[in-house]
Amino acid sequence: MSRTALLACGGGLIAAALYPLLFGGSNYAVNLGFLVLFAAFLGQSWNIAGGFAGQMSFGHAVFFGTGAYASTILHVSHGWNPWLAWPVAIAAGAAVGAGIGTLSFRAGLRGSYFALVTLAFAEAFRILANSVPFTRGGLGMLIKSDPHPANLQFRDPIWFYYLALVLCVLSLALAWWLTRSRFGARLAAIRENEDAARALGINTFREKVRVLALSGALCAAGGTLYAQKYLYIDPSIAFGVDKSIEMLLVSMIGGAGTIFGPLIGAGVLHFVSEVTRELGGALPAIKNAQPLALIVYGVILVIIVGYLPDGSMGLFRRRRALPQGQGHA
Amino acid sequence: MSPDIIFAGVVNGLMAGGIYVLVATGLTLIYGVLHIINFAHGSLLMLAMYAVFFLFRPPLGLDPYLALPLVTAGAFLMGYVLYRGVIGRLSHGRDENILLITLGLSIVADNVALFLFTGDTQTIGVAYAGNYISLGPALVPLPKLISFGASMLICALLGLFMSQTDMGKAIRAVAKERQGARLVGIDVENIFAVSYGIGIACLGAAACLLMPFFYVSPSSGHVFVLIAFTTVVLGGMGSFGGALAGGLIIGVVESLAGLQFGEQLGQLGIPLVFILILLLRPTGLFGRQ
Fold first, then answer.
1. CA-based torsion, A282, A285, A289, A291: positive or negative
2. Has residue B122 been placed in a domain?
3. Is residue B160 part of a domain?
4. Which of B278, B280, B283, B289 should one mutate to test binding to chain A, selecting the residue with the greatest count of A CBs within 10 A?
5. Any chain B CB within 8 A of the CB of A173?
6. CA–CA separation, B25 vs B206, rounded Å?
7. B207 band by pLDDT with thresholds 50, 70 and 90
8. Dist CA A206 CA A204 (whole Å)
9. Do B93 and A137 make contact, defined as CB atoms within 8 angstroms?
């Protein structure tokens, strides 16, 4: 990392740490900050498999939901402390990732077929969560409110903000490591040309299973955090297609396969949300503004895939010389 | 389960399967000719179902079956324009990019519907919805029987169109060998747009046949997109016979799974079939390995 990049990252981190104080800790600002960081974190989990390794998934909610349900079941039904249940949930996400990866990549599924099979896995998990007794089916699971740091529940939302900030920074560090490490280089080779990567002696199957497990672990960590913040999950929240699409959008809009892409995408996403909400408040004719934001994202997605395959990060990158091997065609 | 119940389950499954055949025929045609995985398929079906719903409502009060030619033609036009305006221009390069473009279109379509029509589920109350026909020990709602018969008829007509007309032959020529078709003077871009239009027209017809016994909501697209993909991969991507067999099999699987495992768990049948086919036999039941 160059000095300027280091300074910029340090400055960004300090700004993010001071952000809640700037707004006097107003709940609105803090919650908005949480949503951006949380979406960026989930988007980064998608980006690690979908961007860096080119294994695009339409069903990442399968990991999010696994994490949310694993910790909530351990906590609510078995009395575990959520801090202890969290690593188990992360391991469960990794296991589901490794399982889906092993099955799909063993069968040679690539590209669109891999995307579609992940969608089907998420749907299968949603239906199972709706049907089996230990998830309480469609009723969902309620976590008893008992705000105390030892319970991974906080009265002041500022602590969830900082928790999301820590996770987000860790995920950024992981993404940065992927641009530097041999593992990351192998993933880039797989993304650019899988057959060539295999011809170079890369065990593409093993690397792809690994990256999906890593991505699943990260996403599951987000699932637990979601459950602990909102104290309620149900099969549609946890495994619904909307969650999968949101992770994909955040990453694609910001720039798949870039370190800061998901963070930028999450910022854009929530900026558009706020603007449409304001619009909805200003114009009484607009009854529900939420869909407007999603319409905008859908259009942005089409434009980005059609014209800017590097995402909005590509706008910046194209001005400089393209570093070898990082281009995305 | 008694044989009578199983028989009734199979008959009802076949009836539902008729619609799946029609929806999947559109999807498989688009795949076979354009090599596009049209993720917007479910969402476009949802929009067509809303069109049927609003045509039925006052002031027009148009019966869904009478609306069929109109909605089918409208859907064709929409597909043609969508291809010319968006998909054909932007869908280049990797197949994932095309999948993402059609995903973007489906997000837009779903949320336009949510914005304009709210999230409520809508049904139309046609007078004949409660009429039942008995086929042996099975009781079949009249609209389902009509939808099955009409779906088969439309698929047969489409088959005739593909084998007998010049346009149909041109479409098949493009599907088999694009460069060759271009060399003999076929306007390939036009064939792409027409094929996409026909694929969406199938959805228009399916929407008219569905609405007398089914509901529509902005998330209806999600319900159908996985069913349509399951049907198509089961029969083999791009194969018409495969879509026919696949649709009927999926209908029966869904119906029997519902009987055996209940309404909730029975839904597992479709994603499970989809996963198993992709993992074990990605060319489909009837495709060549």
1. negative
2. no
3. yes
4. B278
5. no
6. 11
7. very high
8. 6
9. no
Mind listing the pLDDT tens digit for each residue in B140-157?
889 999 999 999 999 999
Give the tens place of pLDDT for each residue, A49-65.
999 999 999 999 999 99
Distance CA B49, CA B36 (A): 23
The number of residues making up chain A comes to 329
Mean per-residue pLDDT, A204-221: 97
In a domain, residue B248? The reply is yes
Which of A117, A138, A305 is the closest to B97 by Cβ?
A305
Domains belonging to chain A, first-starting first, are 3-319 (1.10.3470)
CB contact under 8 A, A131 and B264: yes
Classify residue B147: in a domain, yes or no: yes
Instruction: Give the DSSP H/E element, type plus range, for residue A296.
Output: helix A290-307
pLDDT band for B137, please (50, 70, 90 cuts).
confident
Rounded Cα distance between A45 and A54, Å, is: 13
Residue A16 pLDDT exceeds 50: yes
How many domains in chain B?
1
Q: How far is B222 from chain A, CA to nearest CA, in Å? A: 8
What span, in angstroms and rounded, lies between the C-alpha atoms of A68 and A71?
6
Alpha carbons B221 and B108: distance in angstroms, whole number: 12
ipTM score here? Answer: 0.91
- Is the CB of A133 inside 8 Å of chain B's CB atoms? no
Count of CA atoms in the C-beta half-sphere (13 A) of A102: 7
The pLDDT of residue A321 is 41
Q: Which residues pair with B138 in a beta bridge?
A: B135
- Is there a contact between A212 and A62 (Cβ–Cβ < 8 Å)? no
Q: Cα(A78)–Cα(A87) distance, rounded to whole angstroms?
A: 15
Q: The tokens 């529900």 sit on which residue?
A: A288
- Cα-based distances in Å from B205 to A191, A260, B22, B50, B153: 40, 46, 8, 13, 11
Q: Are A204 and A107 in contact (CB under 8 A)?
A: no
Range of the structural domain that residue B52 is part of: 3-116+130-280
Is B99 in contact with A112 (Cβ distance < 8 A)?
Answer: yes
Q: Quick check: B97 and A309 CB within 8 A?
A: yes
A81 near B CB under 8 A: no
Segment A303-323, tens digit of pLDDT: 888 887 655 555 555 444 444
Contact predicate B52/B68, CB 8 Å: no
Tell me the shortest Cα–Cα distance from B153 to chain A, in angstroms.
30
Q: What is the mean pLDDT of residues A110-135?
A: 93
pLDDT tens-digit map of B25-84: 999 999 989 888 899 999 999 999 999 999 999 888 899 999 999 999 999 999 999 999
For residues B272-281, average pLDDT: 91
What residues 92-121 of chain A have any CB closer than 8 A to a CB of chain B?
103-104, 106-109, 111-113, 115-117, 119-121
- CATH number, domain of B158, equals 1.10.3470
Query: Looking at this protein, which amino acid is placed at residue A222?
Result: G
User: In this structure, how many other beta carbons lie within 10 angstroms of the beta carbon of residue A35?
Assistant: 17
